[in-house]
């Protein structure tokens, strides 16, 4: 166990300040204080970090093109148990820990749920004490910073590496590796008739590793997130390649080469649901995959792990299809470097790889053009081609129709389907919530499920409760510990014990008080940043997530418009409306026009409603700029209502739904994604359900029968708000209103907004009514917290460990190896 002593900490802190900046504490800025504290903590953990690198057991490598870490300081202090001592020590030095916490940069190396899940999983792998490490990309620019200009989203580069470095990371130049692009593949037989494969005339790019410690909670486990930066090779590497040498010929070419290399880890693609097929993206994918797989082999060689023993010693997890090239890259090393036969290599590879699918949206499925793959990654292309050839032969042997073979092939019509590659080449395929997995099995991947059902399994997502409850809502965490002791911190199933207090008015009042305090804090933030005054006594109704048509922020804002009309229609009657604040936070992908139009609509409606004196503050709309992890930590603890209103079947899981529930918000939801599991935990009496069922949505999609125009013409209230989009009722809204109108009416409302909005409004009315009964509300809130334990990512990770990574390859997979 790492221990801390306040006196020594203070000395260490002063010394470090002097070493790093040659100045006194008084002269330091908050950023400098943060850097110093970070280095002091890194010094303290260095021994344990080193120790955790030794592989005594099976090691898991989690490959993800995104890790949305968020700030690390508070969560590291919590996991180390250092917070109190450091807070006091700093206090005695005249420094406020909370100010330092706020000056940490927030690395936004991810878009949304997928990247954040990867970060929660790292926390949980370390906290349950396995050797589990991440491989990713060290993007120079993370997800763009969002600004609103004239109510529209404007994207500003996220320069998170202010001085080109990040204090938690350690660069490890002697572990740099070479990644090879383009060139030609030579196959020759050597003297002993062995096939020798060489890669000629390639473009070498150096992958420079940066290690970030991932600290487990209350144990000695410190794992590593290794993110790679792309650079031109240093001299030692350059020697090995004719390409690098040729670049010396002209200064201009040398600059071009520098750009080629550095561009790879320059920016995160800001797209969370659309596959764009750009060359640079494929370069990024191969970059971190090749570096990571080579790194694993290097470690295995160092620890004298034989290739045959690999499946017992390592598990490689492919987070969505972006790291799918792990499969051919591993095959490449086994074939070309280790000299194994195809069958031997395949046998090892399939026993090591597992894959998670995160979406059933067609437009998000990665398909790479064969031509691009052939040119950029010739050896990968050859290996994928061979995997495909063997697989397709196998299917034909089984007598399947050509139609079916076509659907299941990895390569078809000039394209490589990355999901098919992952399914064929992994021993485990999982979805991220029960409904999602069911849809994979029964709809989207049904052919594969029929073929190899034993590979498919569900792993309902989870969240790092240490960050999302203990760190971000300390008052609530303290209350819980006071009531039921602290066992829940290690094992969240103990939260269930809170149910004992469901009739205890003191506890319920305290719960309400804590929520109120969090609301006041958020109201202050909004006043300072948006200059909008909101009433902490109003219901805080929150929808924070990426902006996407299927997530239906549009339904939420159209309902606000309905309420606005209701107030105006009854302006003399002084309607007894429960005051409500509708809070939005969402970034739209820069090229996603409809999403950007919806942002503009929300901002315009906010201006209209917030500035109309007739509303008398009964409803307010706030769109918080630049939503991300740090803001989520402020917003979620303050929410009364959690909006989880996606079109049923479209949201694979959702994870903010779990964060809100754990912080005592009540869920307003369709039975989509993991909302189903929330419903299983608390029942329909403790949440607000509405909307089409999965079957209804699937039936509409298969057989038709939905007409948004009919609804529009038959429902006067609906017609009124839809017309508002185009009749000038909303000041500032121009052509964007027409775009949204067309999506709803001309293109038949793909996401059933108009079909579900009546039921949604009813559910909102139930919320309004219930909020008046504070005791009942607080009881429901308590029941939600008490039943949220299952959503800790520790539970999820333990399931991955037991059913996938440590269990390894199923017998059926072994028997079926092609
Ligand atoms: O993954 C999300 C799902 O939409 C959400 O339902 C689920 O809870 C979460 C974790 O399983 N998917 C994403 O966040 N996807 C991306 O961010 C993404 C990023 C790059 C891409 C495609 C998708 O190229």
TrEMBL record:
SUPFAM superfamilies in the cross-refs: UDP-Glycosyltransferase/glycogen phosphorylase
Keywords: Carbohydrate metabolism, Glycosyltransferase, Pyridoxal phosphate, Transferase
Cofactor: pyridoxal 5'-phosphate
Catalysed reactions, as listed in the record: [(1->4)-alpha-D-glucosyl](n) + phosphate = [(1->4)-alpha-D-glucosyl](n-1) + alpha-D-glucose 1-phosphate
Pfam family, one: Phosphorylase
InterPro entries on file: Glycg_phsphrylas, Glyco_trans_35, Pyridoxal_P_attach_site
Gene Ontology molecular function, alphabetical: 1,4-alpha-oligoglucan phosphorylase activity
PROSITE patterns recorded: PHOSPHORYLASE
EC number, UniProt record: 2.4.1.1
Biological function: Allosteric enzyme that catalyzes the rate-limiting step in glycogen catabolism, the phosphorolytic cleavage of glycogen to produce glucose-1-phosphate, and plays a central role in maintaining cellular and organismal glucose homeostasis.
Family under the similarity heading: Belongs to the glycogen phosphorylase family.
The name this protein goes by in its record: Alpha-1,4 glucan phosphorylase
Biological source species: Terrisporobacter mayombei
Top-level taxonomy: Bacteria, Bacillati, Bacillota, Clostridia, Peptostreptococcales
């Amino acid at each position: 166990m790492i221990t801390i002593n306040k006196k020594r900490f203070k000395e260490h802190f002063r010394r470090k300040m002097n070493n790093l900046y040659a100045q006194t504490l008084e002269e330091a800025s908050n950023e400098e204080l943060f850097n110093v504290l970070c280095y002091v903590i890194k010094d303290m953990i260095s021994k344990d970090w080193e120790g955790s690198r030794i592989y005594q057991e099976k090691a898991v490598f989690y490959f993800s093109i995104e890790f949305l870490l968020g700030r690390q300081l508070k969560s590291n202090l919590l996991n180390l148990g250092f917070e109190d001592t450091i807070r006091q020590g700093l206090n005695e030095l005249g420094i406020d820990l909370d100010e330092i916490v706020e000056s940490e940069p927030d690395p936004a190396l991810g878009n949304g749920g997928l990247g954040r899940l990867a970060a929660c999983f790292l926390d949980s792998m370390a906290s349950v004490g396995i050797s589990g490490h991440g491989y990713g990309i060290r993007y120079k620019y993370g997800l763009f910073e969002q600004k609103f200009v004239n109510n529209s989203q404007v994207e500003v580069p996220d320069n998170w590496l202010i001085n080109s470095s990040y204090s938690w990371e350690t660069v490890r130049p002697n572990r740099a590796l070479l990644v090879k692009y383009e060139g030609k593949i030579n196959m020759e037989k050597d003297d002993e008739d062995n096939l020798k494969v060489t890669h000629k005339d390639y473009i070498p790019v150096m992958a420079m590793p940066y290690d970030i410690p991932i600290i487990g909670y209350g144990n000695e486990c410190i794992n590593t997130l290794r993110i790679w930066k792309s650079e031109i090779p240093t001299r030692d590497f350059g020697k090995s390649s004719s390409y690098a040498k040729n670049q010396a010929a002209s200064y201009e070419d040398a600059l071009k080469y520098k750009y080629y290399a550095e561009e790879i880890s320059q920016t995160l693609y800001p797209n969370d649901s659309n596959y764009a097929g750009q060359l640079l993206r494929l370069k990024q994918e191969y970059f971190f995959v090749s570096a990571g797989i080579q790194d694993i082999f290097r470690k295995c060689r160092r620890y004298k792990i034989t290739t045959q023993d690999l499946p017992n010693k390592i598990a490689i997890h492919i987070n969505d299809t972006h790291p799918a090239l792990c499969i051919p890259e591993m095959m490449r090393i086994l074939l070309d470097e280790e000299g194994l036969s195809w069958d031997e290599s395949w046998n090892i590879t399939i026993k090591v790889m597992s894959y998670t699918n995160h979406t059933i949206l067609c437009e998000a499925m990665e398909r790479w053009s064969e031509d691009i793959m052939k040119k950029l990654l010739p050896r990968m292309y050859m290996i994928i081609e061979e995997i495909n050839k063997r697989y397709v032969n196998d299917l034909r042997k089984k007598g399947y129709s050509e139609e079916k073979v076509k659907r299941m092939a990895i390569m078809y019509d000039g394209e490589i389907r990355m999901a098919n590659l992952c399914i064929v080449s992994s021993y485990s395929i999982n979805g991220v919530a029960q409904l999602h997995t069911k849809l994979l099995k029964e709809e989207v991947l049904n052919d594969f499920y029929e073929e190899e059902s034993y590979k498919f399994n569900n792993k309902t997502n989870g969240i790092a409760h240490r960050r999302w409850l203990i760190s971000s809502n300390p008052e609530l965490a303290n209350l819980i510990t006071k009531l039921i002791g602290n066992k829940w911190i290690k094992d969240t199933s103990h939260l269930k014990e809170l149910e004992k207090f469901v009739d205890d008015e003191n506890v319920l009042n305290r719960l309400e008080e804590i929520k109120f305090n969090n609301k006041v804090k958020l109201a202050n933030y909004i006043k300072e940043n948006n200059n909008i005054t909101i009433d902490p006594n109003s219901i805080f109704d929150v929808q924070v997530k990426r902006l996407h048509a299927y997530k239906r922020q549009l339904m939420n804002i159209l309902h606000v418009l309905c309420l606005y009309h209701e107030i105006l229609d009854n302006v003399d009657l002084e309607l007894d409306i429960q005051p409500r604040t509708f809070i939005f936070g969402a970034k739209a992908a820069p090229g996603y026009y409809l999403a950007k139009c919806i942002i503009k609509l929300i901002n315009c409606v906010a201006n209209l409603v917030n500035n109309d004196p007739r509303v008398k503050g009964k409803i307010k709309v706030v769109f918080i700029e630049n939503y991300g992890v740090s803001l989520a930590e402020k917003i979620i603890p303050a929410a009364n209502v959690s909006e989880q209103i996606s079109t049923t079947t479209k949201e694979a899981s959702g994870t903010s739904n779990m964060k809100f529930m754990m912080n005592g918000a009540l869920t307003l939801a369709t039975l989509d994604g993991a909302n189903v599991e929330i419903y299983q935990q608390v029942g329909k009496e403790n949440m607000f359900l509405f909307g089409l069922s999965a079957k209804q949505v699937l039936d509409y999609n298969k057989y038709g029968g939905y007409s948004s125009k009919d609804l529009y013409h038959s429902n006067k209230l609906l017609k009124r708000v839809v017309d508002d989009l185009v009749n000038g009722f909303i000041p500032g809204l121009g052509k964007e209103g027409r775009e949204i109108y067309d999506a709803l009416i001309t293109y038949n409302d793909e996401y059933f907004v108009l079909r579900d909005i009546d039921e949604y409004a009813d559910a909102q009315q139930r919320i309004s009514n219930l909020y008046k009964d504070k005791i009942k509300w607080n009881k429901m809130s308590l029941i939600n917290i008490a039943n949220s334990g299952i959503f800790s990512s520790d539970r999820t990770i333990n399931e991955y460990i037991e059913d996938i990574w440590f269990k390894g390859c199923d017998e059926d997979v072994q028997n079926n190896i092609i």
